[in-house]
């Protein structure tokens, strides 16, 4: 959120909206409420342990399936669609690409993403061992650079072009996914015992989502104070991880 807000400031002169971030408020509000609910349950399960994690795991998967079904039925406003770029596997723009080419590029791309994630995790563990540091602390600092930052490049480009709904929907949709599917894997295959760093990161994420929800409800859009608050939250997390 801070990143797209900063992008809006940088590209303010070429945007009709200026510095303000505008989007389909009902869609964003739904995503934020869903995220707040699921992440609160996940943190509660890790901190209090009132319900066995293995029991909760299927509920998080079902919750995401329900969210997807609801989104497909009640999709918000759409942006004007630009012409899609040519497929890497089929650079000829004169004819539509064959379905098998689309499928092949998708499979290869997914394999590269999964393979890259595996290499990243393995090397992060090696670095943590050599530095005698907590793998969780390193992952909280470095994982966003390897996972979220490249994805958010899309949001920055959309912000530049004034497509705020796409940019913000990309973020809130990712928040919903991260608060359900990865959490369900953690609940199912780990003890889900969250230490202070995980709880701190989760608490700051909830705070950021509450700021977004407040800004949508009161200001009816995302403005500079919200962007500043999100930036301070992330910098606060970095400071806490580095200094403790």
Structure description:
The protein has 244 residues and is an all-alpha fold. It has one domain (2-78, 97-243). It has 10 helices and no strands. The chain has helices spanning 2-10, 25-47, 53-73, 99-131, 135-146, 148-160, 164-178, 181-189, 196-219, 224-243. Helix 2 (25-47) runs antiparallel to helix 9 and helix 4 (99-131) packs antiparallel against helix 5. The radius of gyration is 20 Å and the shape is globular. The model has no long low-confidence stretch (mean pLDDT 85).
Can I get a quick summary?
This protein is mainly alpha-helical and 244 residues long. The protein has helices spanning 2-10, 25-47, 53-73, 99-131, 135-146, 148-160, 164-178, 181-189, 196-219, 224-243.
Relevant terms:
mainly alpha; 244 residues
Helix content: over 70%
The shape is globular
Overall structural class, as computed from helix and strand content, comes to mainly alpha
Largest sheet: none
* Total count of helical runs of at least 4 residues: 10
Uncertain segments of ≥5 residues (pLDDT<50)? none
Average pLDDT: 85
Query: In percent, how much strand structure appears in the residues?
Result: under 5%
What order do the SSEs take from the amino end to the carboxyl end, as H and E? HHHHHHHHHH
**Radius of gyration computed on alpha carbons:** 20 Å
N- and C-termini, Cα separation: 26 Å
Number of domains: 1
Total DSSP E strands: 0
């Amino acid at each position: 959120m801070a990143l797209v807000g900063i992008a809006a400031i940088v590209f303010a002169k070429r945007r009709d909206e200026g510095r303000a971030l505008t989007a389909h408020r009902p869609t964003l509000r739904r995503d934020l409420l869903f995220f707040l609910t699921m992440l609160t349950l996940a943190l509660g399960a890790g901190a209090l342990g009132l319900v066995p994690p293995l029991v909760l795991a299927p509920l998080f998967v079902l919750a995401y399936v329900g969210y997807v079904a609801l989104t497909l039925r009640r999709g918000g406003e759409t942006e004007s669609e630009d012409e899609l770029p040519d497929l890497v596997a089929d650079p000829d723009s004169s004819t539509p690409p064959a379905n098998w080419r689309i499928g092949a590029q998708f499979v290869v791309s997914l394999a590269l993403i999964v393979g890259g994630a595996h290499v990243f995790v393995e090397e992060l563990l090696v670095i943590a061992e050599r530095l005698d540091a907590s793998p969780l602390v390193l992952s909280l600092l470095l994982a966003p650079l390897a996972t979220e930052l490249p994805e958010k490049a899309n949001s920055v480009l959309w912000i530049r072009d004034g497509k705020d709904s796409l940019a913000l929907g990309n973020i809130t949709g990712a928040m919903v996914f991260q608060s359900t599917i990865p959490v369900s894997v953690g609940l199912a295959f780990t003890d889900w015992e969250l230490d202070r760093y995980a709880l701190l990161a989760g608490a700051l994420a909830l705070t950021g989502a509450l700021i977004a929800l407040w800004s949508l409800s009161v200001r009816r859009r995302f403005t500079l104070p919200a962007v500043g608050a999100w930036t301070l939250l992330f910098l606060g997390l970095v400071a806490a991880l580095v200094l403790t």
